[in-house]
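Support reply, case 0932

Customer input (verbatim):
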Amino acid sequence: MMMKAINIQENNFWLGWQILLPGQAKRIWHLVERFGSPKTAWEASFNELVKTGGCSTEVASSLSRKKNEIELDAEMARLDKEGIGYITYHEPSYPEPLKDIFDPPPGLFYKGNLISQDNTAVALVGSRRPTHYGKSVAEKVAAELAESGLTVVSGLARGIDSSAHRGALKAGGRTIAVLGNGIDVVYPGENRALQDNISLSGAVISEYPLGSPPEAWHFPVRNRIISGLSRAIVVIEASERSGALITADCALEQGREVLAVPGNINSPVSKGTNRLIKQGACLFEKVEDIFEEIGLGSLFGKSEIKTKPLPKMNRDEENIYRLLIGNTYDLDVIIDQTGLSAQEALAALMFLEIKGLLRQLPGGLYTWRE
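Our regenerated output:
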């Protein structure tokens, strides 16, 4: 989004607009751009909403009435009480890949934590009614991605999504679940424990405010976030009208790579994936296919990771190591991304180099050692 930096103290007003216009990022950005800030837009009168905001008289009347019913400080306090974070587009820890899409959420509600490792993520999506083969593929691929240090993104739906999250968790890796409802609403109900575990080992996120139900239109809107967070998406079993194909379309529009797992030509849940391959999606056979598509083929060797145990690392070392997987950064970026002091970062970098886990390049750059 082409916007000036906005004071973090205006988070209350971003929150207010997302409560007022849930899942309507384009409309929120439009209003804020016209008024110059979320605060000015929030404080606009009926006449200003019509004249400056470009709203119809009916819309301006509705917005004015509903704004008066929302207590912004109370809503922030409610989030804090529920243990749910709220981060806006203009904050440093907002996911970088998501900033690049056409209509990013102005803010994200989240449980868990968002870290720099999540900037190298892969989405696994597919049918809510998969075959045993589809579920096993999703779990296996997610585990291999997690073992390689990548974050697995999916939508916490039944079927492929749930299998992908479970695979990443079983491998001890990170996974992000993107919801089509409020974070305080568990959907589907049987995934309550899975949702809790994801928030402990990654993050559960949503652009929908607390209490938002899982309405049908929420999920196609949600899918752009799944693809937007990811460097690539892998579609694992999808019928011809599957929501996973919407995610694939979003990925293509956002310039992400799309891979598809081929399936039985007689199976309804393979119609969509097979069609994607016919249309030019990369045929997925092994996890290295993903690495090649996103330009990490020479950096990630799954067999090497499995046969070469990593030396023990403290938390600072592990945070830097995960940040450098597939990347090359200087000290200033490492400090900014990890939140460490210069002294802490230099100490961790020295020990990582001694352990053979990174190497220093000319110009004060650091990179992951294969």
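We compared this against your earlier run and they match. Two observations from our side: The radius of gyration is 22 Å. Confidence is low (pLDDT under 50) at residues 1-6, 301-308. Please reopen the case if you see a mismatch on your end.
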